[in-house]
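Troubleshooting: if your tokenizer reports a length mismatch, compare your output against this known-good record of 171 residues.
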Amino acid sequence: MLKNSITIILLIIVLFMCNLENISDHKIEKQVLKNIIPIKKQSTYIGLLEIPKIALKKEIIDINSKDNHVDKNIQTISLEANNYILAAHNGNTANSYFKNLDKLRINDYIYLYYNNKKYTYLLYDIYEVKKLGFIKLKIVNQSIITLITCKKNNNYLQVIYVGILQKEEIN
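Known-good structure output:
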């Protein structure tokens, strides 16, 4: 008897649920959809930049991603074999990932995790260039990482941080 009662109750619930789909204005369905938390589509991260001295640990975005822009992420400008070039804002906003680069000094470490490898760089040069919309980088015959940001409190200069590859390890 109890088993039959449970079966009947379940059948009524199923029929009621089926009829909900047929409600013309779908008010209930719309309310249910509003309460579902959307899953934020993740950008394509291809690596990670880490600078322990300034507690920076941030994903590197695919160069072809629509989110590859300094207004959203650390921008990937080049990932060619001997010269990785990255840029980010320097300021007080949430997307100012390079806001503390000015605390770096020559011989500080920069780590790049990319293509299942860990690259260890030693900062060897810091220089300023005029902000012209393009930058002529210094050419060196070594594998380097170049980090580009605006100079703090100056709308006319950019600061370039260059690290030389010290070690490459399988990650």
